[in-house]
Amino acid sequence: MSTSTDIDTGYADEADQVSIWDRIGRPVAPFAWPLVLGGAVILAAGCFLSWSYTSDVLGNLSIDFYPGAIQNLMIIAAILAVLFALMYRGPLSRLGEWLASATALRTLGLGSTVFMALVIALIGLQSGGLINVMPGAWVSLVGAVLLLVGAAGLTPRASRDPLHAHLPAWLDILTIVVLLATVLFGAAYVLDIEDGTVFSLVVLFTGLVAYTLTRAGFFTWVGIVAQTHRRVLMLGAVAVAFLFPFTQDGSDANMSIATQVLIFASTALGLNIVVGLAGLLDLGYIAFLGAGAYIGAMFSHSAFATIGWKPNFLVVVVIGALVSATLGLIIGSPTLRVSGDYLAIVTLAFGEIFRLAMGNLDGQDGPKLTNGPNGIPAIPDLEIGGFSFGETHEVLGITLGRFANYYFLLLLLAAFIITVFTRLNDSRIGRGWIAIREDEKAAEAMGVNTFGLKLFAFAGGAFLAGMAGTIKAHHDVSVTPDQYIFLESAFLLAAVVLGGMGTVAGVLIGATILKLMPEKLRFVADYRLLIFGLLLVLMMRFRPEGIVASKRRQLEFHEEDEELADRVEEVHLVEEQEAKA
Amino acid sequence: MTDLLQQLVNGLTLGSLYALIAVGYTVVYGIVQLINFAHGEVFMIGAFGALATWTVLFQGTTALWVLPVMILGAVVASVTTAVIMERIAYRPLRGAPRLAPLITAIGISVALQEAVRLFYPGAKSKIPFPRIDVVTGPALSFGGVTVQRAAVFTVGALLMSAALLWWFVNHTRTGHGMQAVSEDKDTARLMGVNVDRIIVIAFALGAFLAAIAGVAQGLLNANVDFRMGFLAGLKAFTAAVLGGIGNIQGAVVGGLVLGVAEALAVGFIPGQFGGSAWKDVWAFVLLIVVLVFRPQGILGARVVDRA
Amino acid sequence: MRSHMKFAVPVVVAALALSACGTRGEEPGTGSTGGDGAKKTVKIGVIAPLSGDLSALGKGIQHSVELAVKQANESNALPGWTIEVAAEDDEGKADVGKNGATKLAADDEIAGVVGNLNSSVSQQTQPVFAAANIVQVSPANTGPSLTRGADGNTRPYKTFFRTCTTDITQGAFAAKFLLDQGINKVATIHDKKTYGQGLVQYFTEAFKAGGGEIVAAQTINPDESNYAPVVSKVAPAKPQAVYYGGEYPQAGPLSQQMKAAGLNVPLMGGDGIYDPTYIQLAGATSNGDFATSVGEPTDATDAGKKFLADYEAAKYAEPSAAYGGYSYDAANAIIEGLKVALKDASDVKGARQAIVDAVGKVSFAGVTGQVGFDEFGDTKVKVISGYKVDGGKWTFVKSENLG
């Protein structure tokens, strides 16, 4: 019997949810199912009519029978609703045993209604009055409301635990491939959207669909499939990432954002080892990235480079990584013995020392190494064995510009870091870190070399950041101390924490969101940092484990949740069984 | 010799500022084991509160009687901010792992900075701070040593605040309650101390002193800037650790020591690594050195051992 | 049923009320580009600090360019083309500037850019614009290395020009200015950025050559707001004046703190401090401080007076500030170049090399004098003026042509 009502488990047994839904739903219960179908149809029908009188609002919604982007979204929602309705009763009801279709329909209904209301409000706002909203939009709104009311009338049924679903392997793999393809083309499409409001609506819609599918239990099943077919997923993900530049048709605008996201994500993954795996609060991580970048700049062929020796780039990468790792050792050795809070402040202080030192070593206040506050500009593009990263190349008829070249290199780097991360996570070292994270004294009592492991995490994370930094110097063309301020460390930490500590997917999502949003939502550019600060506060209050959290981590943050603990144990046992079988 | 004395004077002035802010850090850390990252912003909001009071009520006046009202305005702004912060952001996270309140604090710090920058008129660049008679004006000279008037105000403010604080903590019930809570929260609760209220008072106390520091900084530098809280906060936390975290006298001593150390580093480190360019670096190096060789600080820490 | 009616009626009424307000939009079909659809667009970019501490100067640059473009469009200076302004904010920071420059450089309709304000930012944006072959004319960069290279004799980027003269001239003028007043013991302070450091360097050379003595040389961290340590290091050397290389957000408080700490001597700076905000920040004790600025005061010439009058009439939110005239001339230099280069061109991107060549050869009468560039891209007009703070305002003292 479920006793906690405020933690959403999303699993089986929805029969316990007594709420407003039933109050709305009871009067319509006999008509619920046809109402849902009817609502979905009306919603879709409304999308084929025009929604706005003028053509410049939200990407041209003013032509009948030619749906614009946002109308297409609602058509997709309607199709989903029909599918779920058929799962509840009808030809797809076998599928309906596994997925909680009634809950999904309720979420979809509520979400569509809110979405339509928002769209109508925006059309009214942007075109100067609700009178500019054409009947088509109101029709769709009515359809959404009908869907909502109908869904409220459906009695939720208990659904089976996806943990026990056994589908043929080829179906699993097909699902993974289809999902990845959706991600690839969806990403390409979304990145091309120019209008900030349309972009936000699309993202909102994606979130709505994702949430609906989560409530249905779909992603639980996907998660289990992903665990079982890990190799396929990884290969697929790599393929998707590799194919991305080819969908850009030679345009560099999105590629430059993509490369910045990759650099940021790579650094965040390095930080994930320090914060996510070993649980060390590092607030000065940007200094390691900066050390790598400065090494890359100082040894480059830039006119302002301060060191005469110009070795091969691969040598520079190694030097950069080693210098960063050494810095990590220097700062780690004295401070890892002290408590976690002190470590945070000391790393913060070290980050500031690094920034100030880089700004001072200009020959006047120190040896001439870094060219002071002006930094080292005009760093030429990389050249590895004759292949110049600055030139455009033609592959299979598609032009790949400068940023696409760096993209592939960074992809290689990211893959390397992810490999290191996963191997460490699954090893004795990783388990040692988990032990230290959860209770350091107990770990030490059990013979875990806490200091050594912590130092390894610190220096290891620094090593990876140094590598990323050397590439960053060439990508950015210039290195200045202002790029390595505390705020950047805060962003990195936020990417790790908001995305989900200790998981690769989580950090990637977090990094993408944090780097992508400011680029696309330029109309709130001024409020960007304010939103960031508030986001941190809200996330810590309501979902401290992040968006994509490993269950273990979730448990750490919600220690009193018995159900969650049971669930973690159950999943773990089933996995063990399957591994033995 | 006068050089040394001059730098000592500079150091004590700077140190007094650090000390006033450090008390806020140390008191909060001693009771809830939270590094209140946003305390630097509380200090900044105090300065802006004083500025706002002057702009709204006393535009154009420079008379001395305006100063206490400005200080009152600063205190109101700071204390309100701190109390709201505690209520909304920190209290719900009392039992959570260390990372959650720390990240929240960073978030609040950034949000407050931006809020002031966006919503206070003219805050996107530096705003001149009003010149008040007697506490600003031509400097006083003793022998070869010049002492700024605002510096006298700062040191005086520290001395008065320290005295008031000492009396409050040692001779009032609430003060005794604070000492009890920082020693052992649960036993204090069992003894009938209202722990929640004490925590709010701790935050308010820190904010009160930070507000005074904000006014002092405004008078010293002649301008306020929405970024002024960050570095000052960091140095002040360094000072708190230096003196012994959780220990109020430690915060005062730590602040003064840090200020003097910085000033002496500026004046007397020879060669390329001296001078004001490296001032902050030396302060942070001092922090690291203290943590390595004497983590409990100069006067000894007073923190509950969190098992 | 009744409860439903109670709910429905207000909703219907509200809906009617809401729909009653608001006007019908335009007929769909009228394109967003109004007027003559046959004209092609060419853009002139502006990259300057439009927000932050130096926005007073940056906004003046932006509006002056807008004025020049407006006048060019109205007089149909480029037949068959409409000129637009694309403004990017560099916040006075090298990094932000580089990103803004990358954005402008990716736009195929950009023919030329006016910017930047800070020499340290231009150092980052020069390579970006040069790689895209976009001509860049700065109204305010006085750092000599931008056109003369690190060794003083090699032009690093053929696309970079400036309408203001360099710090070699400015520093020399300042040195002479102080020596003429009998001041021969000076302490220098700078903020370590390209502009400040360079200015102090050339001032020092000229000052020593003229027989003066530099009694102290210090630096400050531009993020710092308390200058007591620096002042305490400088004061014992008993300078008769302090020469500051840097901008007004630091110079103002430095002047105020200096005098409050007992070092009661004038502070002199370059064009970076020549702004009314300096006096605001420096307070009442700033009377007696000096500054130099490139060129003559804008209202000294007839062309200048006309420019100021036109600017006033256009009612921009911010005044044209110190570099208004230079930005106006920079924009017009680009427009003059476009007159030649775009005559037979079909698109902007292909004409970029021609635009660079044409701008290098312009010669016309501008607000700041006869606008023309030498083989390094430096302006041929080498006039510097000295100003003094008197009664809370900058007042003109004298100017000299050091060409």
Automatic annotation (TrEMBL), chain B:
Localisation: Cell membrane
InterPro entries given in the database record: ABC_BtuC-like, ABC_transp_permease, BCAA_transport_permease
A Pfam short name: BPD_transp_2
Keyword Cell membrane recorded: yes
GO annotation, cellular component aspect: plasma membrane
GO MF annotation list: L-isoleucine transmembrane transporter activity; L-leucine transmembrane transporter activity; L-phenylalanine transmembrane transporter activity; L-valine transmembrane transporter activity
Predominant place of localization: membrane
Biological process, per Gene Ontology: D-alanine transmembrane transport; L-alanine transport; L-isoleucine import across plasma membrane
Protein name: Amino acid/amide ABC transporter membrane protein 1, HAAT family
Originating species: Intrasporangium calvum (strain ATCC 23552 / DSM 43043 / JCM 3097 / NBRC 12989 / NCIMB 10167 / NRRL B-3866 / 7 KIP)
